[in-house]
Amino acid sequence: MADELVYVSWGGTGRGATLRTAMERASGSGLGLLYLAILDDASFADLEASFLAVVKDELGWLLEAQLEVTKTQLGIEELPVRVLIRGGDVVEQVADVVTTMGETEVIVGAPVPLAGHESIESLMDLIRSRVPVPVDLISADAEGLDST
Amino acid sequence: MSVQLLAAQEGDQVSEFIAQESAVVLMLAIAALVAVVAKRLRFPFTVALVVVGLLASVLGEVVSVDVSPDVILFLLVPPLLFEATLQLPWPKLRADLVPIMLFALVGTAVGTLALGALVHVTVSVPWTAAFAFGALISATDPVAVIALFKTLGAPKRLAVLVEGESLFNDAVAVVAFGLAVTAAAGDEPFTLTGAVTDFVVVSAGGLGIGLILGYMVSAVFLARVDDPLIETSTTLALAYGSFLLAEEFGILIGRDLHFSGILAVVTAGLMVGNVGMHNTSPSTRLTLEHFWELLTFVVNSMVFLVIGLAISLDDLAEHFTAFVIAIVGVLVLRAVLIHGLSAVAAWAQPNRTIPKPYRHVMVWAGLRGAISLALVLTLDNTVFDQDTVDTLQVMTYGVVLFTLLIQGTTISRLMERLGLANKIDTELTQQRHQARIYMARAGQTEMARLGADGVLFNDMATSLSRTYQRDIAEHMSNLRSHITGHPELEVSMLLQARRDALVVERAALNEVVFSGLIDPLVANELTIELDNRMAALDLLEERWESDPLPTFDAGSGGGSNG
After folding, report:
1. DSSP B200-266
2. Last residue of one domain, picked from the residues B396, B420, B444
3. Are B482 and B433 in contact (CB under 8 A)?
4. A11 to B551: CB separation less than 8 angstroms, yes or no
5. ipTM of the shown complex
6. Could you read off the pLDDT of B382-417 as tens digits, one per residue?
7. B542 to chain A, minimum CA–CA distance in Å?
8. H helices then E strands: how many in chain B?
9. Do residue B266 and residue B368 come from a single domain?
């Protein structure tokens, strides 16, 4: 079983505060942090495969830089972090990563609207029904966690 | 275009040429003055020029204008189109080609017919004249809006949609206008099949000429010659040459055959911007950019001052009803077409819908300008009777004036209300802090140099350097506080830093290519890779960072992003 907290995002600005909260929580629990970035079908399926690879590459660079900046700001340079970029359906990808990698906890950070889902509640319910570990939500103002 | 000072017109000693030259010099001086004031007031430059032109014509004729449509179309329009396409990245244009072509082709065709019918019924002009008006007024001219987009930091996709539509609908409007006038002249019987065939031939010819000439200059000439002046002159010749060759192609083969000059220059410009620019050295690119920026400034100054000078408020008052009908018709139809065709585009490309706020801005950004003016001025009483010509001209002037003065000056407020310009204040503050750090660092470096050179006593240099260091620390602290309060800027700073790094990588690549260290094939491969990386950053900013869909309902228990 991996000792990592999975921070899930499929885009959106204003994630700085939510990412800080997730990293503090991972650090406090003695876990590492896996940043799972999902390029969902609704926004990225139209891209050619070769260009999508470049997009993933650049996003990886950007997120790794953001993680390093945040670690330094929080003074938790020793926290193990890594970025994983997946493409496809958000729910499917979260479920796949958690089950295949044996992750223990999932945090969804400041989610942007997702085509095909009417509300964040229904989306969170769907993720929770597919994932056998606790799934928490951090809203954009990052005031706290909305636990399962 | 004959533009001259009235005093010179009346005087005997001053030659016609000197009079015209004086008028051009005066207009450039006015434009420079207007540019300074407009910049200070953050007012759209081109709109300010129209206002000044109008005031000049109302207050008394200082400058008299006799605008020839050929001068506008053959002299002023090609450089404006060419410069606009130089800045248009093909990957972005290609990504939105479906909606852009829908707006340009279907929008212009439907707009021509619908507005024609409205004008025929309400203003009582003949069908062909009404369709000619419908066509010429369909050509949008977003110069004022695009400049404003840059100032407001509007999303790049929005700018590409507006500019892309404008470039291609100009061509369609000119062809549709030509068909209506030909039908009115009665030289050839009008048939739908004939019109479609003409359209396809004229468009394909223009695209073909632009592609061939653009490729020759971009991939062959610019790749082999490394001289900023020669390369820049060649692009100027390309802009005018492609337009002229397409429009007058028949002369070469002894037939009455015209292709679309607008499509030719647009295609040639896209080739140079997306292929040719990559085959030039950094110094050539700088020269090219500065040259085209200057030429566009000069040409825009002329075009919009002339628009202001040419419009007679008395004529507008005289044809008030027709003027109001035209404006209402144009506005309502644009709203229907943009929203309707966006729905069609969304059906064709479900993953690439145009967000509703973008559509609202696109409706209001449909300004009219030089092309509409040039086309209406080609009308004379040989095809339509003089009353009809006067009515069409007044309606065109009215729509151009309304869109420039009302829409051009209110679109920034609309964008602010729609949340498409709300990042600008926080970003400007961030940039101010960063600029102060840069400036202080430069000052500190200079102090160190002066101290080391012995120009300044060492203790003085050290003290001044420490003062600078305190300033830098203060600016850094301010920047940090600002970013903490606006976390979304953190990612935008990272994106910008990555962009800057890619630009430097590109310059380094150009250096090694120039010194012959790497094979051109490798250089080309790496150039494409860097371009794709840059395009990927733009795409991430648009699709990953922005929030194009309505946010989740706050009451639904979850957070929505900022």
Report:
1. HHHHHHHHHHHHHHHHIIIIIIHHH---HHHHHHHHHHHHHHHHHHHHTHHHHHTS-----HHHHHH
2. B420
3. yes
4. no
5. 0.89
6. 888 888 998 998 999 899 989 988 998 898 889 888
7. 10
8. 27, 2
9. yes
